[in-house]
């Protein structure tokens, strides 16, 4: 994987409420060379974004994410986002 000018792997915020899906995604993304921050739900993800928004470069989230946020309502739409479904 090519890294940016800083030569550090991109940081992905992985938001997935299903444990097995989250663990699989972690394995795949780490193997692909990404650095991960994981969140089990939208509330945790929002706290991560508030505290570490300058670090997170990509948002990878579950499409049917429960309230309070749906995948298409994330605050920073300028951030690249990948979406998945646990189905």
TrEMBL record:
The keyword Nucleotide-binding does not apply. Residues 11-87 form the Response regulatory domain. GO terms for biological process: phosphorelay signal transduction system. Keywords: Phosphoprotein. InterPro entries: CheY-like_superfamily (IPR011006), Sig_transdc_resp-reg_receiver (IPR001789). Coiled coil: none annotated. Gene3D superfamilies: 3.40.50.2300. This is Response regulator receiver domain-containing protein. The modification 4-aspartylphosphate is found at residue 62. The keyword Secreted does not apply.
């Amino acid at each position: 994987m090519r890294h940016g000018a800083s030569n550090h792997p991109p940081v992905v915020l992985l938001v997935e409420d299903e444990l097995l899906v989250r663990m699989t995604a972690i394995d795949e993304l780490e193997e692909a060379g990404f650095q991960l921050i994981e969140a089990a739900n939208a509330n945790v993800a929002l706290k991560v974004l508030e505290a570490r928004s300058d670090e997170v470069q990509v948002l990878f989230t579950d499409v049917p994410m429960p309230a309070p946020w749906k995948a298409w309502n994330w605050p920073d739409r300028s951030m690249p986002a990948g979406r998945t479904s646990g189905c």
